[in-house]
Design brief:
Layout: E1 2-6, H1 17-29, H2 46-52, E2 65-70, E3 73-78, E4 83-87, E5 92-96, E6 101-105
Antiparallel strand pairs: 1-6, 2-3, 3-4, 4-5
């Protein structure tokens, strides 16, 4: 079993959720984020997604989730910044916390 992890610095915690979703899906699919097709806005409104998870005047959001399908992945975003990717027919198989992107590849 091989695994590959890519973590970004904590300074990137302010990266909008829509960008982190694109990066997570691109990492999972092994493509450049700029080459993803269809674009994220075909699945969900990126501006609305970012607005849902922006910090409030009193701090970060304390509750809430959003789920949608993008490029065959079931994307689940939680209020604490976790992004979980799964397939439409499988359960969750990848989780990212805040701006960290983790990708695991199984091979024989």
């Amino acid at each position: 079993m091989d695994s590959h992890s890519s973590k970004r610095s904590s300074d990137d915690a302010a990266v909008p959720v829509s960008i982190r979703v694109v990066e997570a899906v691109a990492a999972r699919d092994g493509v450049d984020p700029l080459e993803l097709s269809p674009p994220l806005h075909d699945a969900v409104d990126p501006t609305a997604l970012d607005a849902l998870f922006e910090p409030t005047g009193s701090g970060n959001r304390t509750a809430g989730t959003v789920s949608f399908t993008y490029r065959g992945h079931r994307v689940h975003v939680e209020s604490d910044g976790r992004i979980t990717l799964g397939t439409s027919s499988e359960g969750a198989s990848e989780t990212t916390k805040n701006s960290a992107v983790q990708s695991e590849t199984n091979s024989r």
